[in-house]
Amino acid sequence: MANRLPIRFLAVEKITFAYILFTTILILSVMGRLVNPLELVGLRLMIAATIFVLAYFNSLRHWWVVKLARYAFVGALLSFWYPDTYEINRALINHDYLLAGWEQMVFGCQPALLFRQAIPQHWFSELVNMGYFAYYPIILGSSLYFFFFGKKHFEHFFFVVLCSFYIYYIIYILFPTAGPQYYFPAIGLENVHAGIFPEVGRYFNYHSTLQETANNSGLFFSMVEHTQQVGERPTAAFPSSHVGISTLILLLIWRKRRYRLLAAIIPFYICLVMATVYIEAHYLIDVIAGLITAGLFYYLSNVLFAYFNKRYHGLMEHAEFFEKRKPYWKTKSIE
Known about the structure:
The structure is a single chain. By secondary structure, this protein is mostly helical. The chain has helices at 11-29, 37-60, 64-76, 78-89, 96-107, 111-118, 122-133, 135-149, 151-174, 180-187, 189-193, 219-231, 241-255, 259-278, 284-308, 319-322. The protein has one domain (11-330). The chain is built from 16 helices and no strands. The longest helix is centred in the last third of the chain and has 25 residues, at 284-308. It starts with 10 loop residues before the first helix and ends in a 13-residue tail after the last helix.
């Protein structure tokens, strides 16, 4: 096959393989306490196989749409990896009592409980809920923007965002937290008002239903409420990935000098940050941690991007194992 290229994985695929390997090891280490460990491992094998098949097909057909499909597939997996963190960390002890205690110690109150009470107006609720819902269009829209209008920056942009998600998800697995919207109803508001934050152990292993918010309405409120009822789990409170990833995206856009895009996103970003506490999805300390980790993960993801983009580092390229020919690293570089 004359136009056959060697199978080469994208940097985002390599970091996805690394995440799959790491989480598979975690699953096997606690599988006796998990509900469906074999299913989780099996799904990982299917995901890895799909990545390999897409890469193989791309070596046969060098179409831009196939390459886009490869990026789209690993990006779409985020909707799987997020609830997957709960499937693993439900085997571990919950740490919300620590976060709520730190919140009380630092601020002398629970901002997540008081923020909505301080500004209950419908217009403000809709404004911040609009910002919270904008989180998903910000990620998708900025990724598509760089793919079509900033191709030289797209690979780096997408890798840094995806890699940072994986780092957040590893934290969520190893440090299980549910957030005020789960923890406060579990311990009772009388304890919250009294500043008493008991440990709940593995309570959320058996209680994963999110209570509906009463006495509110509006388009964006309903959209956020529906999204949470469908896709939310008692996981991923600390640090706030909503704040961390959106801050990271702004940082990347600024570094790529796309100032108009930056200006368009900033109003939604401000509303998003406020919303994380307003809707009780996060403690205020989660927001602060999200802001700090955005910078840290930006640096770490850049280091990993440089490593995984080394042509012969990262996961091994497989073509020379299947073809009796001169190894491709001794031939001319083919991009």
